[in-house]
Amino acid sequence: MVAAQFMLAASSIFALSYGAPMPRSLAERATGATYKAYGGDGTVAKGWPAEKDWKSFDELWEANVPIMKTSCKQFNVENNSDQEIKDIKAGLEAASKTSGVKKEFLLAIMMQESKGCVRAPTTNYGVRNPGLMQDHDGKATCNEGGVKNPCPANLITQMITEGATSEFGLKQTIELSKASDVSKYYKAARIYNSGSIAASGNLGDGIATHCYASDVANRVRGWVDGGSTCEEGTIGKNTGTAGGNNEKPNETEDPKPTTTSKPISNSKPTTPVKEESKPSGTKAQGAAAGCKKWYTIKAGDTCASAEKAAGAPAGTLQKLNTGLSADCSNLWKGYSYCIGQ
Ligand SMILES: *[C@@H]1O[C@H](CO)[C@@H](O)[C@H](O)[C@H]1NC(C)=O
Ligand SMILES: *[C@@H]1O[C@H](CO)[C@@H](O)[C@H](O)[C@H]1NC(C)=O
């Protein structure tokens, strides 16, 4: 289950260890929002929530506080104190100011990642994902090599700020979405979770926590937990429908690719190509900063064939390109990957 492990690296520890969903009544008592499964590309045209359908920060906050009071139970650490919960609110406001990322969105991602437990442990499947935001290689944490209780306000703010502004933080993933409509948030959520969006453009497709973007779209509408109708196994085939979001996947119509590239990991290697000093293709997401040797993927390449062609040790590509899955199934033709420092 290498692929699944990688998937969790950039995704929610919630998926790993949060066993018992909150009773549905809690969600409904909170804002009245019940879950809708969103399929497709994150646009309003495909039925995803417009920004006007988001709840206000205050409403979302009120709805999520009851969850935050008990959410550390999932990690067997002390629950958040009232002071820590106050500090989370201040941290969300501060991080939103610093980054320009809407605090409603920061809150939704935080709840998705850790349920707002300040002592959420660091997960590490090749890259550290610490704390409240389980962000990409952030520094701040109140649970790594020892549990901090209380978790100091400055660390709480730093955890949230790093989720917003670090490499692959939400500010950057919004930019990477290249969208300017509300879909930028849902696309950014997907990129935050898994490093990239599948070739189909469907936010539930490819290697990821498939319901992640749909969950986040529900969270900004005020849903907090319970009664999810999103199925990990089928959401990637749901291409979305204006007005109705619980439609069955349309089996007869393939989602439209947003790019001409295709994952090609299952094909056979072809003629070796040497590495380049500058990327000749689109730079792959997560390629190491300051990379000196690049390799542009040709039809038929695998991670192993590319490494062999460049004379690099096995595993180099995954090491130097954090967007690449452990099983190399998301290697993209025409993209340049770092293959040497
Ligand atoms: C956290 O809250 C939950 C729910 O009230 C409770 O079951 C659990 O024991 C609490 N955890 C601790 C460590 O007090
Ligand atoms: C789904 O399939 C039906 C017929 O099978 C077709 O009419 C329709 O255009 C397809 N697409 C969507 C998005 O409903």
What's a quick, concise take on this entry?
35% of the residues lie in helices and 5% in strands. It is mainly alpha-helical.
Describe the structure.
The protein has 341 residues and is mostly helical. It has 2 domains: 13-244, Lysozyme, CATH 1.10.530; 282-340, Membrane-bound Lytic Murein Transglycosylase D, Chain A (Roll). Helices cover 35% and strands 5% of the residues. The chain has 12 helices and 5 strands. The strands form 2 sheets. Strands 3-5-4 form a 3-stranded mixed sheet. Strands 1-2 form a two-stranded antiparallel sheet. α8 (170-177) packs across α9 (183-194). The protein is globular and about 60 Å long. The structure holds 2-acetamido-2-deoxy-beta-D-glucopyranose (NAG) (2 copies). One 2-acetamido-2-deoxy-beta-D-glucopyranose is lined by residues 239, 250, 252-253. One 2-acetamido-2-deoxy-beta-D-glucopyranose binds at residues 70, 73, 78-79.
Index terms:
mainly alpha, Lysozyme, three-stranded mixed β-sheet, 35% helix, globular
